[in-house]
Design a protein that fits this description.
With about 180 residues, the protein is an alpha/beta fold. It contains 6 helices and 4 strands. Strands 1, 2, 3 and 4 form a 4-stranded mixed beta sheet that branches.
């Protein structure tokens, strides 16, 4: 089936593996830090994404705007993005995507502050996808890709933005929750 390896290949791989200094999992201490959360550094992450997108101005980039968590609160990339915009480092071909519809104490909230476009949780539910920006982002990207593919158009960033603005739902994104 093409997935099996012979004994010689297995022995070679085992020899390579045995040379590695592997830390046993029972002594590892891993504490994730959300790059967009309270303890993260959103400017550093966004600056790298913006630099990459700037190198390829003819390509369209969609990026996840971060997920909320009880430990880190709601991601807020708005301030970091504003800094990059003022420094003329924010490219027009980079689109930050979140999701909207997170329910907390009877109110609906966005996944974070600073995403340009949000996918509604009802749409994620309809597609049987979990609520997460890593799922919302490809939904936005594929929707745009298929829209322009059907029209036979290789879109510019401006056309993508106009299309998202025209067909997107407008939500008043003024609810922000805080885990502290």
């Amino acid at each position: 089936n093409g997935r099996q390896i012979d004994q010689d290949e297995y022995d070679r791989l085992w020899k390579e593996y045995s040379k590695m200094k592997i830390v046993p999992t029972n002594v590892m201490n891993f504490t994730p830090i959300d790059a967009y959360g309270k303890e993260g550094n959103p400017i550093e992450s966004l600056e790298k994404m913006a630099a990459l997108a700037s190198k390829f101005p003819d390509k369209i980039f969609f990026a996840a705007a971060g997920n909320p968590s009880v430990k880190y609160g709601q991601p807020n990339i708005l301030g970091a993005k504003d800094i990059l915009v003022k420094q003329n480092k924010w490219p027009p071909n980079l689109f930050m995507i979140g999701y909207y519809g997170l329910k907390y104490e009877g109110e609906k909230y966005p996944s974070g502050s600073g995403a340009e476009y949000y996918i509604d949780t009802d749409d994620l539910d309809r597609m049987r996808l979990p609520w997460g920006t890593s799922f919302a982002t490809p939904v936005a990207q594929e929707t745009i890709r298929n829209y322009f593919l059907r029209k036979g158009i290789n879109p510019t960033p401006e056309q993508v933005r106009e299309t998202l603005d025209y067909y997107g739902r407008n939500y008043p994104i003024d609810n922000v929750w805080d885990s502290s």
